[in-house]
Specification:
By secondary structure, the protein is mainly beta. It is built from two helices and 21 strands. It folds into two domains: 151 residues, Immunoglobulin-like (Sandwich), CATH 2.60.40; 117 residues, Sandwich (Immunoglobulin-like). Strands 1, 4, 6, 7, 9, 11, 12 and 13 form an eight-stranded mixed beta sheet that branches.
Length: 339
């Protein structure tokens, strides 16, 4: 299968209605290999996707080529779907949305039977409603092969349509929410762990990527640290993505910071990315380890001071013999031997 193909859930299971199940005796899906690619009237033309900018109320024409690379005949279900990008960053299609704008010709009730090694070029027609809003309207075309009885499994591959309705283009990302959690340690000489979770939304009308940076610091900029979170490869209009970053920072009583996103252009899109956006955060990070250490040091100093005062307050030692002491107070008589 060509490396340039856009793959949708290849070798992944998806549920389909029982009416789309393959008939008994059909070849196993694992024995069949097929491809879907942008095409001209002669076949696949080397593009990786269909890309069109269409005025509201206008129509665009294109084509795809479906090829059965296996040695057995196979019947494929060909359909369209609205484009979505999952949390894992993989493009997929779902029912509804703008998929109704796209029709694929050359099918028999949505089915396409291909002989071994056969390629069929199918016309694609895109009809944009007059009331369509400007911006990106991602769509995909998939060719799937199903097997089983009742609820069946399907394996799909397809091609993506980058469809943009002309008009005012407004690319925009926004940091919608930020939550924080600080986990300290009792060792006063070890930094704690600050986890920052965030939600970033595409509030514009074009797809965008983004570079995400998370910063945090203590009062007066003490202990400042910055980490780059996982970048946003692609975020479609109206969609949002969650992410998190972990920073090693000392507990400095009050931590402040921000989640900053620098929007980027995705692929060959012609769009001027907007400026950086950010959302600030603040939280308490009590240095319990330092507090405990200070309490121990203060306690030791108080104990030492009390011992010194106790020694100074003790009375002087008394004499062992009272008579000697009394005699010593009256004078001492000594005898001297003369020669």
């Amino acid at each position: 299968m060509k490396a340039t193909l856009w793959v949708l859930g290849l070798l992944a299971a998806a549920l389909l209605p029982s009416g789309s199940s393959a008939a008994a005796g059909d070849p196993d899906v694992s024995e069949i290999e097929w491809s879907v690619a942008p095409a001209d009237e002669h076949g696949a033309d080397g593009r990786v996707s269909l890309r069109h900018t269409v005025d509201p109320g206008a129509t665009a024409q294109d084509a795809i080529a479906v090829t059965n690379h296996s040695s057995v005949e196979a019947t494929f279900s060909v359909s369209t779907g609205a484009g979505v990008v999952g949390q894992d960053g993989v493009f997929d299609v779902v029912d509804g949305g703008d998929a109704a704008w796209v029709t694929v010709g050359g099918l028999d009730a949505g089915q396409l039977a291909l002989a071994p090694g056969e390629t069929r070029v199918l016309p694609v027609t895109i009809v944009v409603p007059a009331a369509a809003t400007p911006g990106d309207h991602p769509v995909g075309i998939v060719a799937g092969l199903t097997q089983g009885d009742g609820v069946t499994l399907t394996h799909r591959i397809g091609v993506r349509i980058h469809l943009r309705v002309s008009g005012e283009i407004e690319p925009q990302l926004r940091v919608e929410s930020v939550s924080t959690q600080f986990t300290g340690v009792w060792n006063p000489f070890t930094a704690g762990r600050l986890r920052v979770d965030y939600v970033i939304a595409n509030t514009g009308n074009t797809r965008l990527g983004g570079v995400v940076a998370v910063r945090a610091q203590g009062p007066w900029g003490l202990g400042a640290v910055t980490v780059e979170a996982e970048p946003i490869e692609e975020l479609l209009p109206g969609e949002s993505v969650t992410g998190s970053a972990t920073l090693q920072i000392p507990p400095l009583f009050r931590l402040t910071g921000e989640v900053e996103v620098t929007p980027t252009v995705v692929g060959a899109d012609e769009v001027s990315p907007p400026g950086r956006v950010s959302q600030a955060f603040a939280l308490w990070a009590v240095p319990w380890g330092w507090i405990a250490l200070l309490i121990l040091v203060a306690g030791g100093l108080v104990f030492t001071a009390r011992r010194k005062r106790s020694k100074r307050a003790q009375p002087p030692p008394t004499a062992a013999d009272p008579q000697v002491s009394a005699g010593a107070s009256e004078g001492t008589v000594s005898k001297r031997r003369t020669p």
